[in-house]
Structure formats: structure tokens, C-alpha cells
Write a structure and sequence with these properties.
alpha/beta; globular; 8 helices; 217 residues; 7-stranded parallel β-sheet; single chain
Length: 217
């Protein structure tokens, strides 16, 4: 088995790790305290390009939410994240980008952010992205997007965090996952039927329905 290299820096120097986690958490929470508006956080793949249907769809959703007074928060990267921040800025709304410090190749221009911050620790970044948000919108993405979706669903299901709408946009992309959740974990008793776990998740492409879900939460 290969020796740990990247992992070792965290457990071999716990003083450094704890200090930096604390500093990032504190800075992130202080940033959230500056935002008096309700927040909607948008997630999705960084490879989606401008002009793509769902890039433009996301930009419009963020624009409409921004006009209604919502702050828009993303991971501060390209693709869907860029679309959301650009839509917010177009609406004159607060636009927040919480970037991954070690993924600088995914960073985008700074003029689409009201506030921005970079995090070394992705788990701290995910916490700040969600802890004050009134809704979470998920567009198609890869491992990172899926990780975030299931982490937040788990925290809400277990009562560790408050329940807010988790809205999955692009029925064609997500319908296979929804079907699998019903056919496998739900049927095999791995999801709680009594608590209707799957009702934590919404699936829609309709702009008006997205706005209605968020405003009537």
C-alpha cells in the first residue's frame, strides 16, 4: 500500500489543521453575518459553458430570485456557478462566491461577486454554503455536486440541520437517480417511508415552480 502523502499533512500536524479550520470557519460565519437578505445557494458542474441551455436557465433563475431580494451564493467556480453569480449581478442582487483554494483552475473573473472567499477545507466551504441558505438548487454536476446533494439531504433527514427545499433542476439528468432511490434504497427499507425521506427533494425544470417552492417554503 502506498504511503499517505496529502492525507498525512492533516493528522501529522494537528495544530496546523485545527488552527486553519478554525480560521476558515470563523471567516465564513462572519461573512454570512454581513448578509441580511435571504440566501439561495446554487450548485452544479463547472464544465457547463455559456450558451448551454441550463447555463442560461440557471442565469435566469438567479436573476429572478435576485429581483425578489434573494442573495445568490455559489462555490465561486465556472459553469453553473458562474451562471448563477452572473444572473445575480445582472439583477443588482448580492452575489457570493465561496471558492475552493486548491482548485484555482475553476476560478472565474471577480466582477461577478459582491463577496468572495477562498477555502482550503472543502467541508468548511460546504458548511458555509448551506448553513444560512433558505433553499439549495442543484443543476447537473459530477462527484462534487453529488457529494453536496447527499450530504445536505442527510443532514436534513437526520435533523442535524433545518430542512429547506433541495431543488434538482433538469429532469432528464436527475430522473434516473430519483428512480433508483425509489427502486432500491426505498424498497429495501434503507430509506424511511414513514418520514417520507424523498420528499426532501424536488424535481422540476419550471422557473415559476422553482420560485414558488422557494417563496412558499
Amino acid at each position: 500500500m502506498a504511503a499517505f502523502k496529502k492525507n498525512k499533512q492533516y493528522y501529522s500536524n494537528s495544530t496546523w489543521a485545527v488552527k486553519n479550520v478554525r480560521e476558515e470557519m470563523d471567516a465564513g460565519l462572519k461573512l454570512l453575518k454581513k448578509i441580511d437578505n435571504k440566501i439561495v445557494t446554487v450548485f452544479g458542474g463547472h464544465k457547463v459553458v455559456e450558451g448551454d441551455y441550463y447555463y442560461e436557465h440557471c442565469k435566469k433563475v438567479a436573476f429572478e430570485l435576485g429581483k425578489r431580494g434573494y442573495a445568490i451564493m455559489t462555490g465561486g467556480g465556472s459553469g453553473i456557478m458562474e451562471a448563477a453569480n452572473a444572473g445575480a449581478m445582472k439583477a443588482g442582487a448580492l452575489s457570493v462566491g465561496l471558492k475552493a483554494k486548491l482548485l484555482k483552475d475553476e476560478w472565474v473573473k471577480d466582477d461577478i461577486f459582491t463577496y468572495q472567499m477562498a477555502f482550503h477545507f472543502l467541508f468548511v466551504r460546504r458548511f458555509i454554503l448551506s448553513i444560512k441558505s433558505d433553499a439549495l438548487i442543484f443543476y447537473p454536476g459530477g462527484f462534487g455536486t453529488l457529494n453536496e446533494l447527499f450530504e445536505f439531504a442527510t443532514l436534513m433527514k437526520t435533523g442535524i440541520s433545518d430542512q429547506v427545499p433541495i431543488i434538482c433542476v433538469n429532469k432528464k439528468f436527475w430522473k434516473g437517480m430519483f428512480k433508483w432511490l425509489k427502486d432500491k434504497p426505498l424498497k429495501e427499507g434503507l430509506l424511511n417511508k414513514k418520514d417520507e425521506d424523498l420528499k426532501l427533494l424536488y424535481l422540476t425544470d419550471d422557473l415559476d415552480e422553482i420560485l414558488k417552492i422557494i417563496e412558499n417554503k
